[in-house]
């Protein structure tokens, strides 16, 4: 299902105010995006259930690429089981996460956004907020290689500072059986507005007004590498290590630029 252009326009219009004023989003690397797909965008997942940096990424995408070049995204199955929400998500290009749907999106020549770390990444503790970790997921790389799609690293900083996750609560989630019930592997304890201390993964919150920084990296054509084989574990592991290293470097560089910006803004106020 292709996204509904009118629904996309409404979404982007609603998100323009937080994009420009609340999160003061800065974006770099848009010039590296290819003019046409297929391509798989792989990002670091932040901000728990709200995922504000993902929403801001959608705004940045359509501002640059236009509504004629839709961005599809894989989303957690649980969201599509909520009455009304599933249809709304499909209207803006979201699809329940499964290999068959993802492969079909790429075979149609589209752009597909994935967050390989899933809920483990989205609910990571605050201290790990800028650490790239795909949590053992390799399927997205096998998919990109098998479908002949380059991988575009896209990194965000700031989204995981819109709340404070104290603990990911993996052990508690396991004891409560959330993995079997909802495919959630975490039961985090967080501090967020307006609730204060918040247990569990399902509570939306009012994000702190944190500057969000997005960066798109150069596409990586793993499928064109010598010996490229989606069924070769050693090859896929090399792809994983390279992508994780590239994304970690991108996030670290964003941190350095953020420090420079803070110093510059402080000097300007003197």
Written account of the structure:
- With 270 residues, the chain is α/β, with parallel strands linked by helices.
- The chain has one domain (5-163, 209-269): Glycerol-3-phosphate (1)-acyltransferase.
- 42% of the residues lie in helices and 16% in strands.
- It has helices spanning 5-22, 52-65, 77-80, 85-91, 99-107, 118-122, 139-146, 170-176, 178-182, 233-269; strands at residues 26-28, 39-43, 71-75, 94-96, 111-114, 151-157, 164-167, 189-192, 196-199, 213-216.
- Strands 1-10-6-2-5-3-4 form a 7-stranded mixed beta sheet, sandwiched between helices.
- Helix 1 crosses helix 2.
How are the SSEs placed, and which strands pair?
Blueprint: H1 5-22, E1 26-28, E2 39-43, H2 52-65, E3 71-75, H3 77-80, H4 85-91, E4 94-96, H5 99-107, E5 111-114, H6 118-122, H7 139-146, E6 151-157, E7 164-167, H8 170-176, H9 178-182, E8 189-192, E9 196-199, E10 213-216, H10 233-269
Parallel strand pairs: 1-10, 2-5, 2-6, 3-4, 3-5
Antiparallel strand pairs: 6-10, 7-8, 8-9
Helix pairs in contact: 1-2, 5-7
């Amino acid at each position: 299902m292709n996204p509904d252009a009118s629904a996309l326009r409404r979404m982007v219009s609603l998100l323009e105010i937080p994009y420009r004023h609340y999160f003061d989003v800065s974006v770099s690397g848009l010039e590296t995006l290819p003019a046409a797909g297929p391509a798989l965008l792989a990002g670091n997942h932040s901000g728990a259930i709200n995922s504000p940096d993902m929403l801001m990424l959608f705004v940045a995408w359509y501002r640059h690429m236009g509504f004629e070049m839709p961005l599809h995204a894989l989303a957690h199955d649980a969201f599509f089981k909520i009455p009304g929400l599933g249809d709304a998500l499909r209207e803006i290009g979201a699809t329940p996460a499964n290999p068959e749907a993802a492969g079909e999106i790429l075979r149609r020549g589209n752009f597909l956004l994935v967050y390989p770390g899933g809920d483990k990444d989205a609910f990571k503790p605050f201290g790990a907020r800028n650490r790239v970790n795909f949590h053992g997921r390799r399927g997205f790389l096998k998919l990109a290689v098998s479908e002949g799609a380059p991988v575009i690293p896209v990194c965000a900083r700031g989204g995981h500072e819109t709340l404070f996750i104290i603990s990911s609560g993996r052990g508690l989630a396991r004891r409560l059986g959330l993995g079997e019930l909802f495919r959630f592997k975490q039961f985090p304890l967080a501090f967020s507005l307006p609730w204060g201390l918040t247990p569990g993964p399902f509570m939306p919150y009012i994000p702190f007004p944190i500057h969000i920084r997005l960066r798109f990296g150069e596409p990586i054509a793993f499928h064109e590498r010598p010996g490229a084989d989606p069924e070769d574990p050693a090859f896929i592991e090399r792809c994983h290590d390279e992508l994780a290293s590239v994304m970690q470097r991108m996030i670290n560089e964003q941190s350095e630029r953020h420090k420079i910006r803070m110093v510059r803004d402080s000097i300007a106020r003197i």
